[in-house]
Design goal:
homodimer, Aldehyde Dehydrogenase, Chain A, domain 1, Aldehyde Dehydrogenase, Chain A, domain 2, 2 domains, seven-stranded parallel beta sheet, four-stranded parallel beta sheet, 16 helices, globular
Chain lengths: ~425, ~425
């Protein structure tokens, strides 16, 4: 089916809403966010009911436990969504901020001010809490949004969007500001990616396949997000207790998210002391291990790792492990298989810490901390729309500022050139 | 012919160079820029000789005078290119700048630092001075560049690139940092637009056709630049002498560039006083006039304006003129035909000036000044790579900062989540 006409209608409505939203006051936007939060909590039962249908379908389709966990909504998670909106409401509105300003020798006064992007398309998978996050962040920043969630979460997303859009409109937000594409047909995504007339940017959130499809087919500008093949490199000079805590946390605390570690790199000189206990800990936590030849010497349950494993974003309790001869080998491995998301070194050596941070080409480069901190909330942004893994416009956790553009206001007294 | 293999080689060399360039000191980069400037001047004769060949071919192909002017290089213009590079050399290097930094409650220290984009592809038309501008800006910001100039300027561009690349290498810049695609075959552009493995961004500079082609076909992220259907709106409350000076300058001072005005909008209540003299002035300056019915009442030489004229970027001494009934009609016209580049109002009314700047959705919105100021040099950036007309990453004149990305450095003491 061709959704072009339907999408154009949504685009037109969104663009019209965006024109109004750009000059809507913070007071109204914040009141709307609070009303949306209240509505989510009041109607939590309806959301959870819709979610139960999605979970049932997901189980029938044989989704992994990690994916089912990403899909699950319960009262605490609905409350977390609502709290996210309330946190947004009290954050400073970035729109209208004068970022810089100066006077030119000819007397022209130039002011660079922050404005909304306009209309944002967000294509995402699995996690339905993204629906509320995305709608809230876009509204706060004066942008209209067209959401396209994962087919697994369709019923949850429809329930959430309906509740949010109704609450927003009642609070004075123009109709069309928050819309959802209510079909799981992929053709609708194709139409969305060609909606240049109405869309200013598309943000895909999800697995490598989704990102690649959008990058290759969208004529609307794209912010690439989400794919995280993150590494932790345990250096020869590492505090091994610290390394064990970090490496365990990075893999096990929430394996289904993009900032989870997928490959552990260990310097050969500490492998003998570090790996036996580390691998046993992983095994006890139910982590499936896939390693290089050397790694396999340290634990009997380590399966042979393949080229695919080095490149994989498992999104599950699976870990690739490699013993490296040198820091250079670790850097080369990250260069070859990393996705420019989050990379960590555990080291006690100043020069190596500095070199790792300079040479690793990623959005977030950690020394002595878990990659799991790559997150808008953990960074203190109040929320996040995703983790950008490209270099254009935004890189790393995207919060409010990353959803804005700028405009130059130039005031003169008749200047000509 | 398929240029994929050839382009991949260029891309590989550029990416390798970019890795080194990212950690090359400002001292070396600035010395290279100075050496490049000196080399251009010393070898001006060779550049002008190559340019003469391009001009000859251009005349034979029947290029307009405006286009031939854009193509022309002479000693002052070569000196201007060299001076542009020297101005870059003394500008502050943006790379390594700590943009912001903070400590989280858990003790994590986060620093946002400025890094190069990596490898930039620049596709441009006509003006060969862009070759030196682009190479200099990319080098200053630690980026490798692959240039693809207009077929009309091939010989000029080859001469300039050869001189620049040689001077840069001699000064310690890695080979591969400055490359030109030395063919006029369009297939080479197609290969460039699919070079995601090596390219971080493509910047097209030129007419609407080029921009559209790149936007629709590039899987590499694009910064849209250059198309400027700029308007000047003469409001009912305008100082008409000021309006005449601004409107004349915006069209006539350099009609072949993107910040030149293409359509003049005049409020009906001042049209009778303003237009007869204004139109006579344009006519005396050789400007071809195309206007609405009302405009045609004020000067016998005004031809009927068509829908195409309202949407046209003439790049020549041609002007579309429309009398509007209200400011609302002017705003609606700009919304319908503007390209989000530069728009100006001439007014003495505070509220209308403010409203125009708020409601017009363009990179640069002027009150009482000529649109011709939308330019990196005029803004005080030291140079420019183009004028971005999109909202993502950069908007308006792009200088050094617009050619950079960021990276988060996170330093901990064993933090886990």
């Amino acid at each position: 089916m061709d959704y072009t006409a339907e999408l154009r209608e949504k685009g037109k409505a969104a663009k019209k809403a965006a024109q109004q939203l750009a000059i809507t006051s913070s007071t109204i936007k914040n009141a709307a966010l609070s009303a949306m939060a209240d509505a989510l909590e009041k109607q939590a039962a309806a959301i959870i009911e819709a979610n139960a249908l999605d979970l049932e379908n997901g189980r029938a389709k044989g989704l992994s436990n990690a994916l089912l966990d990403r899909l699950l909504l319960n009262v605490p998670r609905v409350k977390a969504m609502a709290d996210g909106l309330r946190e947004l409401a009290v954050l400073k509105d970035p729109i209208g901020e004068a970022i810089s300003g100066w006077r030119r020798p000819n007397g022209l006064e130039i002011t660079k001010v922050r404005v909304p992007l306009g209309v944002i398309g967000i294509i995402y998978e699995a996690r339905p809490n993204v629906t509320a996050d995305a709608a809230g962040l876009c509204l706060k920043t004066g942008n209209a949004v067209i959401l396209r969630g994962g087919s697994e979460a369709l019923h949850s997303n429809m329930a959430i969007t309906r509740i949010l859009a109704t609450a927003a409109e009642t609070a004075g937000i123009p109709s069309g500001a928050i819309q959802l594409i209510e079909t799981t047909d992929r053709e609708a995504v194709n139409a969305l990616m060609r909606l240049n007339e109405y869309l200013d940017v598309i943000i895909p959130r999800g697995g490598a396949g989704l990102i690649k499809t959008v990058l290759e087919n969208s004529s609307v500008p794209v912010i690439e997000t989400g794919t995280g093949v993150c590494h932790t490199y345990v250096d020869v000079s590492a505090d091994l207790d610290m390394a064990r805590a970090i490496a365990f946390n990075a893999k096990v605390s929430r394996p289904g998210v993009c900032n989870a570690m997928e490959t552990l790199l260990v310097h050969k000189d500490v492998a003998g002391e570090f790996l036996p206990m580390m691998l046993a800990e992983y095994d006890a936590a139910g982590v499936e291990l896939r390693g290089c030849e050397k790694t396999r010497n340290y634990h009997f349950k380590v399966k042979p790792g393949s080229e695919e494993d080095w490149a994989a974003e498992f999104h599950d309790l699976i870990l690739a492990v490699k013993v490296v001869d040198s820091m250079e080998e670790a850097l080369a491995h990250i260069r070859a298989y990393g996705t420019h998301h989050s990379e960590a070194i555990v080291t006690g050596d100043y020069a190596r810490a500095r070199r790792f941070q300079q040479e690793v080409d990623a959005a977030c480069v950690y020394v002595n901390a878990s990659t799991r901190f790559t997150d808008g909330f953990e960074f203190g942004f109040g929320a996040e729309i995703g983790i950008s893994t490209q270099k254009l416009h935004a890189r790393g956790p995207m919060g409010l500022e990353e959803l804005t553009s700028v405009k130059y206001l130039i005031n003169g007294t008749g200047q000509i050139r």
